[in-house]
Amino acid sequence: MKTPTAKDIAEAANISMSTVSRYLNRTTPIAEQKITAIERAISELGFIPLNAKQKVVKTKEKLIGLMIPTFDSSFISSTLDGMDPAIQNSAYRLVIETSHWDKAREANVIQRMLKQGVEGLIVLVNSLSEAEIKVIVGELPVLVVAGVSEGIYPHISIDNIAGGRLATDHLIGLGHRNIVHLYSGELGNKDSLQRSIGYRESLESAGIDHDAKLSLDGGYRASRASRAVQSLIDQDIEFTAVFAANDLSALGAIKTLLQNGIKVPEQVSVVGFDDSPAASVFLPKLTTIKQPLPEMGKMAIQQMMAMIAGKTVSFPALELELIVRGSTDKVALSG
């Protein structure tokens, strides 16, 4: 039986030889339907790629490193949802590692990725500064997603200060003045820091003094946010609204309020941030600030591949949107 060749694969898949060559050598992205046709032809014909000396060609896998702080986050999972189809339709594979908000661990993981031969690095919410990353990776293409741009690397993000203002303005517009803010005090969490700035700017614009007792570390986690709200209740500190820096902590706050017999939104309104999948199914449905997270993930993969290819990248503005649902209402009239 004749040994199948790349030309046979091209004919069987009804695809050009150049496309088959790009697939075999992992040089440039290929449309998903073409990858499927090529792989089906390879399987049916029993094709084994050979070099001129009839030895099996071991094509080097093309890798992109992805550093994330944790998998335990709707923000992370929604962003990864956008990355997945973009990477599947390319010649690249993602190497994903977690830093757990630990700068030393982040540095070690990046060094390990370099040893694996990644051709580019995407950092999703960095703890290390961009300058510290630069010292480790040298001239490797790096793209930072979320956080605050320091000007060294290309950066994809939304305006977190504007998001903090948007959430707090919504509550103030409903008549609330005693507004709790649940932020994340994790080291390096610049997104949360900027949302806190927006919260304070909104209070200042409305002539409301910032009460330090109403700003608590919710840790981006339901359990910590729950404990923070419980501490306010135990101390009889008055508040009529909560702005949580992410949806998970907002849902933790609602759970604790309801457990204490405090109705949401009749007695306390709650706003989250992200518009995670749980926001629209939890009762009451959560008012939140929607980030275009899947779009950010897709853009990150596409732009990283362009950077590896030596192209100049640019990023369109990403819009935030206030999604009003059942967790917010006008402040209840006293008396």
TrEMBL record:
<feature type="domain" description="HTH lacI-type">
    <location>
        <begin position="4"/>
        <end position="58"/>
    </location>
</feature>
<keyword id="KW-0805">Transcription regulation</keyword>
<dbReference type="InterPro" id="IPR010982">
    <property type="entry name" value="Lambda_DNA-bd_dom_sf"/>
</dbReference>
<keyword id="KW-0238">DNA-binding</keyword>
<keyword id="KW-0804">Transcription</keyword>
<dbReference type="InterPro" id="IPR028082">
    <property type="entry name" value="Peripla_BP_I"/>
</dbReference>
<dbReference type="Pfam" id="PF00356">
    <property type="entry name" value="LacI"/>
</dbReference>
<dbReference type="GO" id="GO:0003700">
    <property type="term" value="F:DNA-binding transcription factor activity"/>
</dbReference>
<protein>
    <submittedName>
        <fullName>LacI family transcriptional regulator</fullName>
    </submittedName>
</protein>
<dbReference type="InterPro" id="IPR046335">
    <property type="entry name" value="LacI/GalR-like_sensor"/>
</dbReference>
<dbReference type="GO" id="GO:0000976">
    <property type="term" value="F:transcription cis-regulatory region binding"/>
</dbReference>
<dbReference type="InterPro" id="IPR000843">
    <property type="entry name" value="HTH_LacI"/>
</dbReference>
<dbReference type="Pfam" id="PF13377">
    <property type="entry name" value="Peripla_BP_3"/>
</dbReference>
